[in-house]
Amino acid sequence: MENAPPGPTPAPTPEPAPTPAPWAPVGPAAGPATGPPAGPTDPPGAAPTPGAAPGPVTEAVRPEWAGIDRMATLDLLRLMNAEDRTVAVTVAGQLPAIAAVVDAVAARMGRGGRLVYVGAGTAGRLGVLDASECPPTFGTAPDQVVGLIAGGRSALVSAVEGAEDRADLAVADVSALALTPADTVVGVSASGRTPYTVAAVRQARAAGALTVGLACTRGSALVAAAELGVETEVGPEVVAGSTRLKAGTAQKLVLNLLSTAVMVRLGKTYGNLMVDVRMGNEKLRGRAHRIVAQATGADEATVRAALSATGGRAKDAALVILAGVDAPTAARLLAASDGRLREALESLPPKA
To answer: 59 catalytic, yes or no?
Structure first.
């Protein structure tokens, strides 16, 4: 019997599509990067080095972005902007965790506690930035909101890369603050494993302070070391490992939310008016004048006289006008209301 002729060669079974990473962006950034295809001279993709320990998500490489150095400028900017839009969505998912931090911090600061940010590199600079903006914006004392950065003040303007590995420096920096249970220490780290930041949080917790970990990865050593955690996993950066990009943006958004909401809870605003603003320059003097005018509806001469009588304190000046009292009485009413203008007004007897 003759052998049957061979049949057609079966088509190869297609390989299953790769499962997208949990940080894959949505919308315009989800597809391949716009621009010319990657060529043999492009940098390698996301394949890990054999035997290498896995790094944090913030250090991961997206292979479809390997050709960004060959993209048109506008296409590169569109890609970066599309990635930036995913950050706010990620932060929104952490709002319940952030709210818990805000309430815990406000309760402690209401008892005279301090808010301390700790970080290295970009994370440290963002903490110092937020701390430095609280006195002129909300009238806080210089030592009420504090920023610690690995390497000290010089690290604000020049990178001191080795400092982030020094756990001993963190212990010394935190110990110098003489923390109490009324204080809160927020460790900020994109990877969640910066030795300086993790050690600072552990030292602060041992001292009895409330501790918070803010990381851009999940399941980090930083969050594990803290009592409360906020995890804004924004995924790989367009420039792999450059956490001043999406991770830095996420950190800035969270710190904005944290400090602003805490100050609102502490009565540092009246409605959405920053009535504790300090008149440190001409711009702020003009702002204080407008704030008092907006809060009271008074004319320019009345506002000017009230600010003069209260030494430029916008909150006191607003109370002088709204309650019809003199400056010393306004100061006493505010002191009795823990500095809260609305409560001071509500404590007054109704007018006949």
So the answer is: no
